[in-house]
Fold TRAP transporter small permease protein.
Amino acid sequence: MSGQGPDTAPDATEASDVPKGRDLALPFRIAAALLLVAIVTLTVLQVVFRFVLGSPLVWSEELARLAVLWMTFVGAIVCCWDGSHLRVSQLPTYLKGWLGRALYGVNGAVIIVFLAILAWTAIPIVEMAHRQNRGALSLPVSYYRSAAPVGAVLMIAYLGLRWWRLCRNRQTRVEVDQ
């Protein structure tokens, strides 16, 4: 709900919730788009070579899987910057003032704690996976597994940058309004 005043918690649908200034997520938007193009291209090539030419590409499925994994986490970084992750926003909408802002802050803190645990626990898995190779590409399995900790750390960074920029813009608006 827009227009509830400055005392309500930010809502993902409000324009004021989008960080102002340069889009710091632009490189990740481009990377996600390129990964999507690669996935579609690899999938089409896979179908054409398998069913039309009768000679399947043995490496295309593995590369498409790797691209899907990385696209998922790269896209999640963009969602962190945009504030467009899936969430239930009814309760913060009805809570006014400091209570709504506090709930918004607790929600963000829970997300950061979860991402930190994800990154921390994934590191030993990536280290173990580096000793194994996968199929036709002979890539270390760590290339697949490293998407989670790298994505989690970057999501934490982008959530922090987003909050800093939103707080800075909110402070500037308050100074301008006075």
Remarks:
- The chain has six helices and two strands.
